[in-house]
Amino acid sequence: MDLRELPPVDIGSCFKWKGVVEKTMTSLPRMDEYLSEEGFAELSLAWSEGGLKVHLSVESTFKGSFFPDVEKGDGLELFIDTRGVEEALVMHKYCHHFIFLPKEVDGIIGAEVTSFRGEDKHIPADPENFEVKTTFQRMGYTMEILIPEICLFGYDDRGEDPWIGFAFRLHRQGEKPMHFPVSSVDLKMEAHPALWARLQLI
């Protein structure tokens, strides 16, 4: 086989990303240049003993949301491993896959949709515990999301040197999604937590 016939691989998918998150909002880097995709949002993260806060600023007009088929419209998928297990090959009980929508769909604005393999699992978070506030502008929108500790299995016992695994996929209707830290075009990020960034909570 001629190697020139193989599809290109995004350089960002060849590296593991590590960083820090403070108790004040910490902006995550945009990976669009490395993942060969269009960047259209900024995401910041903050932590406290009470949970995780997410600030999302989207530079794209809201068109509509869908649930559970979040990929059909505008919506944010978050992937969190409360223990930050670096070499985790499958979704384990400390892993979470959340969906958050800019606007409610059938009463849902946030939900946990984690798919586990085997018996190493936790009870899904109660969507009533999420706090989501969206502010719409003419050319985009912002989302303020609070994921309380009660929705993050294992978050309350992280030890003295805490790390979490973290990734996101941001959808917009009719366009390709934006990712951090790896693209899901070549990799199934919801099944492989070892691909997620490791963030130290300082």
Describe this protein with a few key phrases.
202 residues, mainly beta, Immunoglobulin-like, seven-stranded mixed β-sheet, 1 helix
In short:
The chain is mainly beta. It is 2% helix and 39% strand. It has one helix at residues 32-35, and strands at residues 18-21, 26-27, 41-48, 51-58, 75-81, 95-105, 108-112, 131-137, 140-148, 163-171, 178-180, 197-201.
Task: Give a topology summary.
Blueprint: E1 18-21, E2 26-27, H1 32-35, E3 41-48, E4 51-58, E5 75-81, E6 95-105, E7 108-112, E8 131-137, E9 140-148, E10 163-171, E11 178-180, E12 197-201
Parallel strand pairs: 1-12
Antiparallel strand pairs: 2-3, 3-4, 4-9, 5-6, 5-10, 6-7, 8-9, 10-11, 10-12
Descriptive overview:
A hairpin with a 6-residue loop joins strand 10 (163-171) and strand 11. With 202 residues, the chain is an all-beta fold. Strands 1, 5, 6, 7, 10, 11 and 12 form a seven-stranded mixed β-sheet that branches. Strands 2-3-4-9-8 form a five-stranded antiparallel β-sheet, with no helix packed on it. Helices cover 2% and strands 39% of the residues. The protein has one domain (21-201): Immunoglobulin-like (Sandwich), CATH 2.60.40.1190.
Encode the helix/strand succession as letters.
EEHEEEEEEEEEE
The tally of helices reads 1
Using the coordinates above, name the CATH class. Mainly Beta
Q: What overall form do the CA principal axes indicate?
A: globular
CATH architecture: Sandwich
> Mean pLDDT, rounded to whole units?
91
Report strand %: 35-45%
- Unreliable residue stretches: 8-13
What is the subunit arrangement here? single chain
Distance between the termini: 49 Å
